[in-house]
Write a structure and sequence with these properties.
- The chain is α/β, with parallel strands linked by helices and 292 residues long.
- It has helices at residues 12-21, 49-55, 66-74, 79-82, 97-108, 122-127, 139-152, 164-192, 197-204, 212-223, 232-249, 254-268, 279-287, and strands spanning 2-6, 25-29, 43-45, 58-61, 88-91, 113-116, 119-120, 131-136, 153-160.
- Strands 3-2-1-4-5-6 form a six-stranded parallel beta sheet, sandwiched between helices. A three-stranded mixed beta sheet has the order 7-8-9.
- Helix 8 crosses helix 9 (197-204), helix 8 (164-192) packs across helix 10 (212-223) and helix 12 packs across helix 13 (279-287).
- The chain is elongated and about 65 Å long.
Length: 292
């Protein structure tokens, strides 16, 4: 299949590589330039997003935030200008569910299908083709692109219509943030009380408190390895979506708000680009104690 891929950063690059390994030809575009190791028989660098869409049957976007998706799709020389009847646009970024529905309507009016398919699993999941992919769109469009998703991920779910994939991703990010906070509190408590946090983590991994975040990010907290990963500034963006959505829905998400404030404290101390497991540093500042 001829696939367009726009956005070749920490996540997009390995995702594109996995599609190439599956035998597909990719038309590539990135604001920062197409990495040379992707260019070859299966990777064709394009000058604009429009050029990508003109050549591809399915165009995938993987960019940081809602305004970036809007610009790539509908800006000058954007994807929309290069689409023709029957093509499919797949946005795998993590963006606003409300705006996603609007983007889908605009793409549908061009006679094309739109699928929102945000992912979870981070850089490791992208490299290992083990991402969780949460999809919103029609069953017919999902069936056409599912073989592509299977080259990038393991747990692939059609959640519902357009916007539902993004809503699911926001829910995912709420759980991740709150669990990072809980693991941070637990290991901080253990360390301050004089116990070995590494051994506490090892013991907890065999019990009901076990989680992927305790396994991966708990180790990061103990070993002080806070290079991203998934940057705090990106998780702040996702929690902004959760909190603005909660206001629109008339509900309260008090612990989500607390986690956002802890991320804000990290950012205020120069930590916007730290891995999101470094939320624990805000707790350590409050306690005047570093996990060791």
């Amino acid at each position: 299949m001829k696939i367009g891929f726009i956005g070749l950063g920490i996540m997009g690059r390995p995702m594109a590589q996995n599609l190439m390994k599956g035998g597909h030809t990719l038309y590539l575009f990135s604001r920062s330039g197409v990495p040379q190791d992707l260019v070859g028989d299966q990777g064709i660098a394009c000058k604009t997003a429009k050029e990508v869409a003109q050549n591809a049957e399915v165009t995938i976007t993987m960019v940081p935030d809602t305004p970036h998706v809007e610009s790539v799709l509908f800006g000058k020389d954007g994807v929309a200008e290069g689409l023709s009847q029957g093509k499919i646009v797949v946005d795998m970024s993590s963006i606003s569910p409300i705006e996603t529905k609007k983007f889908a309507e605009r793409i549908n009016k061009l006679g094309c299908e739109y699928i929102d398919a945000p992912v979870s699993g981070g850089e490791v999941g992208a490299k290992n083709a083990a991402l969780t992919i949460m999809c919103g769109g029609t069953e017919a469009a999902f069936a056409k692109v599912k073989p592509l998703f299977e080259l990038m991920g393991k747990n692939i779910t059609l959640v519902g219509g357009n916007g539902d994939g993004q809503t699911c991703k926001v829910a995912n990010q709420i759980i991740v943030a709150l669990t990072i906070e809980a693991v941070g509190e637990a290991l901080l408590f253990a360390s301050k009380a004089g116990a070995d946090p590494a051994k506490v983590r090892q013991a907890l991994m065999g019990g009901f408190a076990s989680s992927k975040i305790l396994e991966v990010h708990g180790e990061r907290m103990i070993k002080r390895t806070f290079n991203p990963g998934f940057r705090i500034e990106l998780h702040q963006k996702d929690l902004n979506l959760a909190l603005s959505g909660a206001r629109a829905l008339g509900i309260s998400l008090p612990n989500t708000a607390t986690c956002q404030e802890l991320f804000n404290a990290c950012a205020a101390n120069g930590g916007s680009a730290w891995d999101h497991s470094a939320m624990v540093r805000a707790l350590e500042m409050l306690a005047k104690h570093e996990i060791h």
